Each structure stands twice: as structure tokens, then as C-alpha cells.
Amino acid sequence: MTRDVLPPLFGRTVQRVHCIGVGGMGLGPLAIFLARSGWTVTGEDDALSMEMRRQLQRGGVVIAPLPEACDLVVYSSAIAPAHAASAAAGARGIPRVRRGEMLAAVTAGRRLVAVCGSHGKTTTTAMLITVLRRAGVDAGYVLGGLFNGGAAPAQAGAADWVVAEIDESDGTIGQFAPELTVAVNLDWDHPDFYRSAGALETAFADLFQRTRGEVLVGGPTRNGAQEIDVGPQKRAWTFGLEQGADFEATLVADEGGRMTLRLSGKFQAGEATVRARGEFNARNATAALAAAQLMGVALTGDELADFPGVRRRQTVLSTVGGVTVMEDYAHHPAEIRALLASLRRPGGVLRVVFQPHRFSRTAQFKAEFADALAQADAVYLLDVYSAGEMPVAGGTSAEVADALHRAAPALAVHYAAGDGGWSQRLTAEVRSGDVVVFVGAGDIERRAREWLAARWDGLAAEISQGVSAATKVRREESLAPKTTMRVGGAARIYVEPATAEDLRATVAAARARGVRWLMLGRGSNLVVPDEGVDGVVISLAAAAWATFEARGDGRVWAGAGLRLKNLCGLAAKAGLTGFEFLEGVPGNLGGALRMNAGAMGGWTFDVVEAVTLMDADGTVRTLPKAEMEVGYRHCAELKNAVALGALLRPAAQVEADAVNRQLDVYRRKRQESQPREPSAGCIFKNPPGTSAGRLIDESGLKGARVGEAEVSAVHANFIVNRGGATAGDVLELVRHVRARVRRATGVELEPEVILFGQTWEETL
């Protein structure tokens, strides 16, 4: 909801805002909200992650130092007063405000849904945003984290409603007067600011008094709304899994990454499916669904069935070698207790790498941390992440280790000051079937990725030792330049085998480590996620795979790495007709065989006589077409095998000029009907009886954009890259198109392109 006229802020006209600490999960999304609402926003951070950089740039925030022209500086509470940029702003007389103060100011004129509480508010906020989007409510929002799948962490929105996390840690909670307040819990936290549990409860109670509409609080007893005076003319509602809550849910199933909740009390729907796991998330989902109903949403129960999740909230980083590696932002004892309880599985070994956050919190809750961590089978303690605090007596990781030894004498606990040796110890002890979870709110996400990188380095070295010198083996190879859409991240390991034996050795090494391997052709008909691909990506890009041999009997042998465009050109030169329909398909023969690619009324297997392939166990065999199961975009035999090449039979042998004339006809037809900008081809499958492009066009979506991704004005079933798109832009636009078409026509479009290394079910 970009505004033509910006409202004054803090009693002055503000057009240009600079954000210090913009890489943080609090200020970064707020900066995006400001930029999308019409302000000119710049920002800087001493430790800006690639993920947040991409989101900021997509959202219109310019990463730059404090500019000459600046009306207001917003800073994160983690920024010290002596920070160079903050001090420079002060010296120039530029007003400075905290993140919470700015959020309160820019949402004051809208119907604010304030999600607060000591823990769980990010997930609850993300779930509420998901419910509203599924219901077609274009609310603004400011999330305190990043969605899995790349959706923006903030939007201005066109509706009056705006949903935001309200942080109580620095006292700015006192600036807000919401329309609806959702308090997920009232557990004592932030002892550096609130010296007692009562002081924190008072801050929440004051917020409830200032709330203009309704209040929703976890209950129904202790820490519930029945104990809190919310003032006259408004109602306090309770939610929870406990019997007697106004909005009550019962967790009836929790398996396969999805939960089923039975809803009762004031809920309109009787059941809800939630893509999440654990009792803690069941409670968060109950809060989100109840809040949405209080906002006027008519619940159907499937609003959270495709909830993408939030990064660093039970996020699976890897399953390499049968070891499930996760990360979670939990840093309060109650969060950790709930997290580990949800991860316990019969027969599995649960290993926890824990980094306490803040000396004051560690000193106050070390016994509670020990009690929560005792649910693990092994604990690897890191030093406390100070978050700018000075050390506090009794607030060290050594104190937590001592408390753990007292609480659970039989538990395997590793701690060495300076974080010494935990990584090597974990590597030596971890086994297939284990769950390793990195827990904390500091820089532990970096430690997790460093530990995983070392494991990938080992596999890359093993592959290199087992192949010839001509084979290329690279770590973190960018895949975007290898695709037709030109978006996406890197492959953890990328291999270009020079020979079939090198291909066999690569696959064998990956299988021995329990690592998936994926074939990458010319990179058409797929989108690579921004976070890249956790696996071994294999490309038959070496020249030896691009052979074209005309046989004396009129047949042609073609290698799997041969580009279809080159196949058509070489066939035309030899006067062989029947391949012309493949001229404009931007792939190679291997990919075309795997998908039975088609165009202009023809299909790849129309001209195939036999395929030579390598099975996952390294066996090479040749199958005649008659023995293969092929169909629309499908070849069953190549689902888990690699095509090495194919014997092709042209339709006839004619003059080369005749073939070239037909190629020109198809080329002109394609140029007139398809966009020229980088794309992945048709994004959606055609529904029965109609075309996806027609439905998208009739829904008014031609030209719709997210960042630099755009629905083509030439063909509505193409999403094109206008020059600087990210995979996140593309995926968000896919979600937007599906939602708009569903609302306009009732048809749920299904993607045709491949989400490389992931599944659409994980993302949409």
C-alpha cells in the first residue's frame, strides 16, 4: 500500500529513513515494510546475511552507509550508542528512534494486530499471515523472521489490517495501542530489563488496557486472560489446548510433518490441518486461527495445510548420510523444553548443540536450561552469546554444564571454554539415524553451517579422489548461470563427469554417504531455490557427452549432453527431418528424454528407437522404446536413472533446405507466441479443458510483478526475469498467481516446472 502522501512521524515530515542494524530479524522486515509503504529507505549492518540482503533488495531497501540526505535514523536495540553510524547521525542532528518506536508510529493509523509474548510470537505471526493470505485478506505485515521458501517477511498490504510482532524486550511495547492483541504466553524473560515476572506481566497488562478492540491470551488459568483486567468495553478471549479455553484445540494427530487439530469452543470450523509438528506449534496454530476468526475470517480448516514454516524454527538443514540436522531459535527454557519434546523419537539419538543467549538470561535460568536440555541424549555446549552484554556472575556456559551434571548425571555433556572441540566431537560421535539440532538465538546458525560445510568438504574430496583428472568437482557452484531462468543459489557439490566411469564413481560416492544426487541438463523447465541445492548436482556438460553420429541405416546416435538446438542443426545439415519440433526447446537430449519434452505437436519419444541409461547402482543397459513407460512429461525408467544417449530414427531424409525452411516456420511461431526474456518455460500445467495461460490472463495478472519477476505480457503462463530477479521473487509470484486464479475461478493451478532439489509441497 504505497502512499502518495506520507504521514508525519514524530512531529516532522519524514521521507528518507536510514536503518542501522538492518540485517536483524527485527529491523530488516520493518525496513522492507517502510520501503513498500512509500518511504525511501537505506540501511546498513555489520553482519548482513545473504538471505536478508536478497530480501531487502527485493523490498526496495538500498544497502548503503548513512546518506547525506536523511530525515530519520531507526536503529536496532542491539546497536550500541557508540556505533559509528549512530554517532555520526547524532553529530549531524538527525533524530534517532528505536525499532519498536518506529513500528508503533507507522502502524498507528491502521488496525494493528499485535502479536506479543515471551516466545512463539514469530511462528504465530507467520501462521496468522498465512491464514489471511489464504483467505484473500491483503493485510500488511511485519514478521520477525524469514519464511521458508523465500516469501517476503513484510508487505504494506492494501487492507486496513496490519499484523506485526511486538517485542517486549526493550520496553517499546509501551508505545502500542493495537486493535487486536494476541499474547501467546506471558512467561518471564529478559531479566536484564524486567527484574521480576511481575514487572513483565505488568507491561503486558498495560498493553491489554490500551488495546482498542479485543484481547486473545493463552489460557485459561495461569497466564490467562481470566486473571487480567483488560478494561471496559472489550472482551478478553482465551485460546489453548487446555479444556475450557474459549478457542480450544485438541491435537489428535501429529505425523509426517502435519498435525490435525480438533477445534471446539468458539471456533467456527471443526477441524484444522497444520503443516508443522509438536504441541508448541499446535498452540501457536490455535492462536493464529482464533485471531483470524476474530478479524472476521470464515475459517475452513485448511488455511495452514501448506504453512511454509519460518527459518530457524525447526528448520531442517540437511539429511545427509541419514543424519537429520536442524536449527531452532529457541533460547528460553520453555521453548527448548517444547522443542526437544517434539523431536524425541523412539530409538533415535537426539544430539543438541546449545548456545546460551545473554549472560543475564543464563544466570537467571541455568537450572531451567539444564532441566530442558536433560531430554537430549547428548549436549554440546557453546560459550554464551553476549548480545552486547557485559558478563554476569553465574551466567556462563560452565554454570549450565554444572547444572546439567547435577540434573542428569548420566547425560553426555561436552563443554570446553572457547567452544573448543565441540565440532570434532560431534563429527566423531554422530551416526546415521541421529537427530542433531542447533539451538540458540546468537550466531549458532553460522556454527551449524560451518559444521555442515566440513561434512560436504569431505564428500567432495572423496569424489575427487575417485574420478579422473578431467572431471570437474566444485564446492558451492552457482547454478543460476546454468539455468534458463537465471535465478537461484549454489550446489553444495557440482560435478561434470568426463566419462561414464567417472559418472558411476560420483553416483557411488554419493550413495555411500546417503547423499542424494540430481541431474542438471540445460537448466530449462526448473527453478533453483535461492538457498541452493543440498546434494551432488551432476551435469553432462563435457564435450564427450554431446556426440552426434549418423548411422548408415538412417538412424542417429546422440549423446545425452547434446543441446536440442544443436541436434536439430546437425540433423538439418545431414538432411534428416523429423526433429524440427525440438529446435526451440531450451534443453539437452538427456533432459528431453527424462521429461518426454514436447513442442509444436511433437514429443521426444516420437523419434526415439532406444535409450542407453545408467541405473542408480551403476549398471549400464540399453532399452528399446517398446519396453519403456512414457507419457506426458514422464519417462518412468529415467526417474532414478541417467540417460547416457539415445538411438534416434528421423522421419525421412530430404534436402537440407527443406528442413531449414521448416525450422524457420517453428522458430517464427515460437518468437511470436513466447517471451524472449529469461524464463523456465510454462510455469503451470494446463487444467483439464482449459489452459493455464488463459486463466491467468482472465484474472488480470499479465504484467504482475514481484521484484524483478514478472508475468509475461506475451504469454501469461510464463514468468520472466526482468534482469535481477531472485528465486524468491519467482516463488512469491507463483503463490500470488495461484491465489488470484483460485479466488477468481476456483481452479487450483499446479506447477509444471521443477523446483530443483525441493518439492512444491514444501514451498507453496
Automatic annotation (TrEMBL):
Annotated gene: murB
GO cellular component terms, A-Z: cytoplasm
Gene3D superfamilies: 3.30.465.10, Mur ligase, C-terminal domain, Mur-like, catalytic domain, NAD(P)-binding Rossmann-like Domain, UDP-N-acetylenolpyruvoylglucosamine reductase, C-terminal domain, Uridine Diphospho-n-acetylenolpyruvylglucosamine Reductase, domain 2
CC cofactor: FAD
GO molecular function, one term: UDP-N-acetylmuramate dehydrogenase activity
Enzyme superclass (EC): oxidoreductase
This protein's name: UDP-N-acetylenolpyruvoylglucosamine reductase
The entry's keywords: ATP-binding, Cell cycle, Cell division, Cell shape, Cell wall biogenesis/degradation, Cytoplasm, FAD, Flavoprotein, Ligase, NADP, Nucleotide-binding, Oxidoreductase, Peptidoglycan synthesis
Domain spans labelled FAD-binding PCMH-type: 486-653
Organism for this UniProt entry: Horticoccus luteus
Protein family per UniProt: Belongs to the MurB family.
Region entry Disordered, spans: 668-691
Cross-referenced InterPro entries: FAD-bd_PCMH, FAD-bd_PCMH-like_sf, FAD-bd_PCMH_sub1, FAD-bd_PCMH_sub2, Mur-like_cat_sf, Mur_ligase_C, Mur_ligase_C_dom_sf, Mur_ligase_cen
Primary localisation category: cytoplasm
Compartments (UniProt record): Cytoplasm
Role of this protein: Cell wall formation.
Reaction equation(s) it catalyzes: UDP-N-acetyl-alpha-D-muramate + NADP(+) = UDP-N-acetyl-3-O-(1-carboxyvinyl)-alpha-D-glucosamine + NADPH + H(+)
Keyword Membrane: no
Cell cycle found in the keyword field: yes
Pathway: Cell wall biogenesis; peptidoglycan biosynthesis
Enzyme Commission code(s) on record: 1.3.1.98
GO biological process annotation, one example: cell wall organization
Active-site residues annotated for this sequence: R633, C682 (proton donor), E752
